Amino acid sequence: MRPSFNSIFMNLALDLAQRSHCVKAQVGAVLAKDTRIISIGYNGPPSGTHNCDEEWAETGCARDAKGSCSLALHAEENAILFAVKNGARLEGATLYTTLSPCLACARLIYSAGIKQVYFQKSYAAYKGLPFDEGVEFLNRFGVPTVKLESEFSGLED
C-alpha cells in the first residue's frame, strides 16, 4: 500500500523539525499544493544570525516577555517567507506542521490564503495555555485546522 500525500508531507515536516537548532523545541513545516511541495521550514533564528544550540547550548537563547525565543522564526513563518521570497503562490495551499500554529502564525497563514492546516501536537499544551488560539482563529475564519493522531497514513488525499 502506498502512503498518502498527507502522510508523506507530515513525515517530511517531522524530519525537517530535526534540522532546527532550537534548544527548547524543534518544529517543522511543509507547504504543499496539488501534491507538490511549495516550501519547507523549521524553527530557528534568521539565516546569518546565531544558532542557539551552538551559542547557548545549555540554556537556549534569551526569552522575550512572553517566555518565547527572542530570536527564532517559527517553522510556518520560515516556510511562508521562503515561498514569498521566491515568488510562490500560496493561495489554496495546505500546511503541515508538527506543532499547531500560534496566533501570530495563524494570522499569517490566513492572510497568505492557505486553505487547510494539519498539525501533530498542540502549541497550547507545549506552552501551558488553556487552548490553541491559532487553531481557534483559523477554524473561526474558514481554514480547517486538524490535529492528526499518531497514525496519519490513512488520511485521504
From TrEMBL:
PANTHER family the record matches: DEOXYCYTIDYLATE DEAMINASE (PTHR11086:SF18), DEOXYCYTIDYLATE DEAMINASE-RELATED (PTHR11086)
CMP/dCMP-type deaminase domain segment(s): 4-136
Keyword list (alphabetical) reads: Hydrolase, Metal-binding, Zinc
Q: Which Gene3D superfamilies match?
A: Cytidine Deaminase, domain 2
InterPro entries xrefs: APOBEC/CMP_deaminase_Zn-bd, CMP_dCMP_dom, Cytidine_deaminase-like, dCMP_deaminase-rel, Deoxycytidylate_deaminase_dom
Q: Which residues constitute the signal peptide according to the record?
A: none
What this protein is called in its record is: dCMP deaminase
Cofactor requirements of the protein: Zn(2+)
Q: Does the keyword Transit peptide apply?
A: no
Q: Pfam families, per this entry? A: dCMP_cyt_deam_1
Spell out the molecular function terms from Gene Ontology. Answer: dCMP deaminase activity; zinc ion binding
GO cellular component, alphabetical, reads: cytoplasm
What organism is this sequence from?
Mucilaginibacter gracilis
Provide the family line: Belongs to the cytidine and deoxycytidylate deaminase family.
Coiled-coil segments on the chain, per record: none
